[in-house]
Amino acid sequence: MQTEDLIARLAADARPVDTHRILRTTLIASILGLAAAIMLVVETIGMRRDWATAWGDPRVLAKILFVLAATAASALAFLRLARPGRTLKPLIGLLALPFAGIAALASVELGMAGPQDMPALVFGSSWTFCLAFLPLYAIVPFVALVMVLRASAPTDLTGAGFAAGLFAGSLASIAYAVHCTEDAMAFVAAWYAGAILIVGLAGALLAPRLVRW
């Protein structure tokens, strides 16, 4: 059989690519990962008890907006980087936008506060707890997203891992916000964002080892 005949036969036998498969599997993985993270938060450290009144605090709304924006941005980056031929560099601006927004709000908050109030705004009473536990709650979402990557064909494994880590960390931050009563913008900018970035960096380091294909 000549090479041209072989190529023609392979092309004839090829199945159409399901362009929506990655979207479907990512949606399933993120929903399951978020549900698992929320269940773990509720079972281990519990929900905050003032949700009925907390919604009236603009800081709470800003915190929720940040974690949702970080989730949306990292989800879009993940969906792109899960496909072959995509790289992280064009997506850096998108990923940085939620972090820049919360940093700007934190700067305004600190600028309006007195020097004696700044440590409480930044550190609260649970910064070490947030920095330690939030990445732990990201483990299940991260594993689910790694499974999506293993079933896909990413070529920028480090970039895809970074996006997966940011996505998992953002999902975990939604779950952790169910519990956390620290609503200062400076706290969120320092420790929520910091924990998400830690998970992102961990994903960048782990993905090349976990997603070889």
TrEMBL record:
Q: InterPro entries, per this entry? A: NrsF
Q: Which domain of life is it from?
A: Bacteria
Q: Which UniProt keywords apply?
A: Membrane, Transmembrane, Transmembrane helix
Q: Per the record, a Pfam family?
A: NrsF
Q: Does the keyword Oxidoreductase apply?
A: no
Residue ranges of the TM segments: 21-40, 60-79, 91-114, 126-148, 160-178, 184-207
This protein's record includes keyword Metal-binding: no
Name used for this protein in its record: Anti-sigma F factor
What organism is this sequence from? Prosthecodimorpha hirschii
